[in-house]
Amino acid sequence: NDDQFKKVISHAKEYGYVFQSSEIYDGLSAVYDYAQNGVELKKNIRDYWWRAMVQMHDNIVGIDAAIFMHPTTWKASGHVDAFNDPLIDNKDSKKRYRADVLVEDYCLKIEAKIEKEVKKAKKRFGDAFNKEEFLSTNGRVLGYQEKIDTILKRLGKSLENEDLADVKALIEELEIACPLSGSKNWTDVKQFNLMFGTKLGASADSAMDLYLRPETAQGIFVNFLNVQKTGRMKIPFGIAQTGKAFRNEIVARQFIFRMREFEQMEMQYFIKPGTQKEWFDYWKETRLKWHKSLGLGEDNYRFHDHEKLAHYADAATDIEFKFPFGFKELEGIHSRTDFDLKQHEEYSGKKLQYFDNEDNTSYTPYVLETSIGLDRMFLAVFSNSLQDETLEDGSERTVLKLPAVLAPTKAAILPLVKKDEGLTKMAKDIVDDLKWDFNVTYDEKDAVGRRYRRQDAAGTPFCITVDGESLENNTVTIRHRDTMEQKRVKVEELRDIIKKEVDV
Ligand code: ATP
Q1: Using one digit for the tens of pLDDT, what is the confidence trace for 27-76?
Q2: What is the ipTM of this complex?
Q3: Which tens digits make up the pLDDT trace of 201-218?
Q4: Which secondary-structure segment (H or E) carries 193?
Q5: How far, in Å, CA of 496 to CA of 504, rounded?
Q6: Entry pTM
Q7: Atom of ligand 1 nearest to the CA of 260
Q8: Neighbours of 40 (CB within 10 A)
Q9: How far is 486 from 480, CA to CA, in rounded Å?
Q10: 154 to 137, 168, 308: CA distances (angstroms)
Q11: Which of 103, 262, 320 to mutate to test the pocket of ligand 1 (most atoms within 8 A of CB)?
Q12: How far apart are CA 383 and CA 405, in angstroms?
């Protein structure tokens, strides 16, 4: 799986999806640039989310708040005091780790042992093998599972109680039980604030300390009443936003999974106190449905309900996705009560209340939040789509089976022969016609088979080839990326054929 992940990263570069930031200066750690294809995929994911959340819900509207916010925002939100990661340094390797992530890595190691048992059993039992049953009955597997649960529970408790000494003790114990870093020499665990600071204003004494927002949510909370009043919104209603967020992540690795500058897609749903359970269930189900609609494989998702809750939350779950390095958080769904609005009321001295016409009451709404990282979603889609296939004739192909609705380029138009002016002109005319509706591209370089492979690897769902017969009867062949089937169709039909596949 390490190999698979390396492949994902190099493919993302080779096919113009993701570059390291400032690469000519040897890059900047945990900062990445989206390239010509990546920017399209990212935009399509964002649009797919926006459409499902804003366009398809009558009672959800969008905003685009500034990255800079009044510094008191972050006092009120709790980020100044509590947006910390527990850090631990290894004295021998001089490597710095996020203590909770390190503990999770030990758990992943144990999880790998479970996978190994599964593989062994599969081999032994063949067709009769039932994974579910095996996982719930095999003694060794249950032992491993219990170990993971106890470790995570202890971690949760120690962090909650700010018992950093116990977090260190846990790491030391784990390192002896299943060595990972190869060294036992650790510093104490310390808390480190993740916000990036900057200054507003030129002169030293009048300059104001600002933060780059570490989440987009606060821009929604502080605008709650503005949107509610000007949009004449009735509870329940939602405000959605996509935009950059910044965190000074310590363990910056795993490519675009954890970055210092990333993009979030968040929605805050304002509800009547007392209805939070029902809306929590609704959004859990609705968001999972959204993920599944992309066809990345139903088994690749799971909920991880939080046992340890932030003090303001009364329920929280993560939608986890099976990345090449294991199941990890992709999206968070949180029932946040009235914590955020109440905090802003207190710090701003302004009421953030809703007047309910129906029962003539005023109250501070509760909030249900869905929060997903756009870059993480990108990685989920991209890594899941990248596949190596052995074809019937024994040859290999690499294909990026992106959901057609998300693919950067929907079709490549290829003249069979580059030197034939009739063919190239007809191909370019098709490009000029289709580009009003889709991102399409023209490609005439190399033999047509090589061009097909190139488009397969770039994720283009259709190749349209113009050949000698095309000039005679105005038909072309259209080749499907996933099945590689080719069909001869009329040029006038192309638009509908593509539309059928790429429309949601
Ligand atoms: P993690 O535990 O992985 O650090 P988190 O619980 O801090 O994530 P939230 O604050 O709930 O994350 O943010 C919501 C979403 O934003 C996450 O589910 C994730 O998809 C995304 N996200 C958070 N931090 C990063 C990051 N550093 N890089 C990319 N995406 C991120």
Answers
A1: 999 999 999 999 999 999 999 999 999 999 999 999 999 999 999 999 99
A2: 0.98
A3: 877 777 788 999 999 999
A4: strand 190-193
A5: 13
A6: 0.89
A7: 27
A8: 19
A9: 7
A10: 25, 12, 10
A11: 262
A12: 17
